[in-house]
Model the fold of this input.
Amino acid sequence: MTEAPPKVLPRLDESLLTHLPPFAALSGRQIRDILDQATSRRYRAGVAVFEEGMPAERFYMLLDGYIRVNRMSATGDQVTLHYIPSGEMFGIARAFRLESYPATAMTAVDGIGLSWPMGFWDGFVAQYEGLGVETFRTVGHRLSEKNDRIIELTSQQVQQRVANALLRLINQTGRKVEGGIVIDFPITRRDISEMTATTLHTVSRLLSKWEKDGVLESVRRQIKVRDPHLLTELANPEA
Done:
C-alpha cells in the first residue's frame, strides 16, 4: 500500500514560533516573513520525512511530535541514533556544507512540521538574528550527547548504558503522569538496544527485572519510569 502524501496545512499564526529558541529574538513581522516562506505539513507516524543519502533539498522545523533519527549500518540494518523533540530544527545539511542527508528522519508519532528550500538557509542565518546561533547550539548539544554515548560505550557496563539512555529520553521527552514519568512516544526494546549497542535479549532481561523491582513500567510500547531516583542510581552506581 502506497503511503498518502503528507497533508499541507492552512496558514499558521506566528505565535506558534515566538516561544521557540531559534525565533525568540525575532519580531512578529520577521516570524511572519519566515512562515510565509514555509511549507507546513502534517505527517503520520512512521513516515520518512527524508532518507539517508537523498539530496538535501529542504530544511525543517518540528512543531509537534518526535523524530527518530536512523542511519544504515554496514550490514544494512537501520540503527536508531537519537530522537528530536518538537521545537527543534533538523535536516540543516547546508549548515555543514553537505549535499545529501547523512541520516533518515522518521516520525515516531503523528506530527506537524515546517520546511523551507535548502537554498534559503544562508540568507535566513544572515538576516534573522539568533536563528543560526540557537540552531547551532542545539546541534552542539546533540554532538555533546553523542560524545557522552561514546564514553558510555567504552567505559560503562550494559546496565549503566541502558539506564542512561532512559534518563536522556525522560529528560528530553518525559511527561509527568500519575505514578511516574512516561516517555512520550512509542519506543521498543529494539530501539533501546540499538541506542546502547546492546543485544535485544539483554535489554529485555534488564527491563523485565526493573519492572519487577518497581523502577519502571512498560505498556503498549510506552515506558513509564516510576522511580527516576532509583534509575539514576542504576546509571551511576558509584555516585
User: Anything to note?
Assistant: The helical segments are 28-36, 121-127, 131-155, 158-173, 189-195, 200-212, 228-235. The chain is about 35% helix and 25% strand. The chain has a mean pLDDT of 86. The longest strand covers residues 78-85.
